[in-house]
Amino acid sequence: MLNPKPVSHTNINEIKDYFKYAYKHMSLAQFTTTYLWRHSTGLLYDIQDDFLYLFEKRYNYSSPLPLGDGDIFRALEKVKEYKTYIGGNNLVYCIDEEKAKLFKNFYELNEEPDFFEYVYLKEDLINLSGKKFHTKKNHLNQFVKNNKYTYERINVEDIPLVINLLEQWNEKMGYSIDLNVEKQAINELLNYDIGVNYKAGAIVLDSKVVAFAIGEKISDDMACVYFEKADTSIKGSYAVINNEFVKHEFPDVMYINRQEDLGLEGLIKAKESYNPVFKVKNYSMKL
Questions:
Q1: What is the DSSP letter of 105?
Q2: Does domain 117-259 have CATH number 3.40.50.720?
């Protein structure tokens, strides 16, 4: 039987290589997302028979699809056995469309629209061409016209300025557990080496960071923006970091994944406004 233990910095190297089996376009299935949010999920892992098994203790042992190159049905039986033993739920998630086709005759599958990930053409986000991007282009042009700013890659000296903006943003939004976990994740990524080739950039205005973004190339043709924050009192700040970050950091990809909307109306509106070309579907299933 599986015997999971907590994921921590001491076992990064043990688990990281298994993420090559994750669906390449799903940001939720990547190592960076999984690892950085481990404090929130109470992430546990075990490795058996060349499969990585993950369980989220704080979500009643929900689990992403096991990652490996062997018999996935046998691996799922191991997941079911452990969940039954521990009294956890029977849910498995991070299932892409191809895997959903494989499982549809064996398990109860459900689409998870709140976790569909918005994908954009890189060239659209850079050029903002055409009528459908008219408003975004105006916001960007206003910022450029009214502010003498620089785009800078975030270095060690910039981290306190980034955290300061994040703190201001959290205060404005009203502190919450989720925001504190996000702050912890950003702080860890910027201050500690977890073996991720991430990109981090900021808009600097009057020696202050007024916007920043952090992302990573997750496949040959796609990059993902994990975090993005801006001073909303400065009109166009989100538009400029969105544009400059992609332009400077990911010139060689076709697509930009800006993650899910969690079913939140504000996020839905913001993500739809940049005209996604498709969404990465996420399925869950009951064992």
A1: T
A2: no
- The pairing of strands 149-153 and 222-230 is unpaired
Take residue 135 and report the two structure tokens written for it. 């408003």
Q: What is the pLDDT of residues 72-97, one digit of tens each?
A: 999 999 999 999 999 999 999 999 99
Confidence category of residue 171, pLDDT binned at 50, 70, 90: confident
Q: Contacts for 181-188 with beta carbons within 8 Å, 24 or more apart?
A: 181/37, 181/39, 181/40, 182/227, 184/39, 185/36, 185/37, 185/39, 185/227, 186/162, 186/214, 186/227, 187/163, 188/36
Amino acid at 270: A
CATH architecture of 5-115: 3-Layer(aba) Sandwich (3.40)
In the chain, alpha helices (H): 12-16, 31-36, 38-41, 72-86, 97-103, 122-127, 134-146, 159-173, 177-191, 237-249, 265-272
Token pair for 258: 């800006």
Q: Where are the domains of the chain?
A: 5-115, 117-259
Instruction: Tell me whether the CATH fold assigned to 5-115 matches the one assigned to 117-259.
Output: yes
- Give the residue among 49, 36, 96, 56 at the shortest CA–CA distance from 76: 49
| Best CA proximity match to 114, nearest among 282, 262, 259 | 262
Q: What is the pLDDT of residue 135?
A: 92
pTM comes to 0.94
